[in-house]
Write a structure and sequence with these properties.
alpha/beta; seven-stranded parallel β-sheet; 8 helices; 7 strands; globular; 3-oxoacyl-ACP reductase; oxidoreductase activity; Sc_DH/Rdtase_CS
C-alpha cells in the first residue's frame, strides 16, 4: 500500500465487467485496491496493469470468495481492509420455476449471502478497531422487477439486501456503514452480440432514454466508499435510469 493511500479497498470479482470499472475508479480516488478474482488471471492482470499505468495502487488477490479458508488466509495477508465491495458473481442461468432445484438456489446464495458473510467476518475486527468501514453490496434491479425464470438469482439478491439492512443496524455503532448498489442492465463485454431491439425493449419504462455505462455504477460505489457518504447506511441505491424507483 502506498503511503498516500486512503486505505485498502477490496473489490471482489474484479477481473472484468463492473468489478474492473469499480476497481479502477476506487484506485483513481486514492484507494489501494485489492483486486480479487478466482480464475481469470489474464483478465485480472490486465486490469491491474491498466490501473498501475495510470499511477494508481493495486494488488492482485486471487481467492474463491465462497471458500472460508481461502477468504481467511487471503484477507489476513492483505492486512486491514477499509472498504469491501461485494461484486463477485457466478452464472445466472434462466430456469423455469417447475425445473429449478434447491441446489440452484444454493449456488446463488453462496455468492450473495455466504461470500459477503465470510468476508465481513474476516475484516470486521480491523474495522471495529479503526472505528470506521464501508461495506458495499452490489445488488440488482431484478429484486424489484422479478425477472421470469430467475427465481434463484432474484431471491439471493433480495437476501443480500436483507444482510445490508441488518448489518447496517448492527454495525452502525462501530462507525461501519453498509449499503446496496443496484445496477440495472449496464452493458459490459459479456453483452456483446445483444441486438438494438433488445436494448430498446429494456429501455421501455425507464425515466432516462439511454443505456447506462459502467462508470455510472462505479461513481456511486465511489461515493459510498468515501467520507461523503458518512451518514448513509442501510440503503438501496438503484443505478438504472429510473427503471425502478424506490
Amino acid at each position: 500500500m502506498t503511503g498516500n493511500s486512503l486505505g485498502t479497498a477490496l473489490v471482489t470479482g474484479a477481473s472484468r465487467g463492473l468489478g474492473a470499472f469499480i476497481a479502477d475508479r476506487l484506485a483513481a480516488d486514492g484507494w489501494h485496491v485489492a483486486l480479487n478474482y478466482a480464475h481469470d488471471t489474464a483478465g485480472a492482470t490486465g486490469v491491474a496493469e491498466r490501473i498501475k499505468a495510470r499511477g494508481h495502487s493495486v494488488a492482485l488477490a486471487r481467492f474463491d470468495v465462497t471458500d472460508e479458508e481461502q477468504v481467511r488466509a487471503a484477507l489476513a495477508e492483505l492486512g486491514p481492509i477499509a472498504v469491501v465491495v461485494n461484486n463477485a458473481t457466478g452464472p445466472q442461468p434462466l430456469i423455469p420455476v417447475d425445473q429449478v432445484t434447491w441446489e440452484d438456489h444454493l449456488k446463488q446464495l453462496r455468492f450473495f449471502v455466504k461470500a459477503p458473510l465470510l468476508i465481513l467476518q474476516a475484516v470486521l475486527p480491523d474495522m471495529r478497531a479503526a472505528g470506521t468501514g464501508r461495506i458495499i453490496n452490489v445488488g440488482s434491479e431484478v429484486v424489484d422487477l422479478g425477472n421470469r425464470e430467475m427465481s434463484a438469482y432474484v431471491s439471493a439478491k433480495a437476501a443480500m439486501h436483507g444482510l445490508t439492512r441488518t448489518w447496517a443496524r448492527e454495525l452502525g455503532p462501530y462507525g461501519i456503514t453498509v449499503n446496496t448498489v443496484e445496477p440495472g442492465w449496464i452493458p459490459v463485454e459479456r453483452h456483446a452480440g445483444v441486438t438494438d431491439a433488445e436494448f430498446a425493449d429494456y429501455l421501455r419504462g425507464t425515466a432516462l432514454s439511454h443505456m447506462g455505462e459502467p462508470a455510472d455504477v462505479a461513481d456511486v460505489v465511489a461515493f459510498l466508499a468515501s467520507s461523503d457518504s458518512r451518514y448513509v447506511t442501510g440503503q438501496r441505491l438503484a443505478v438504472n435510469g429510473g427503471k425502478t424507483m424506490t
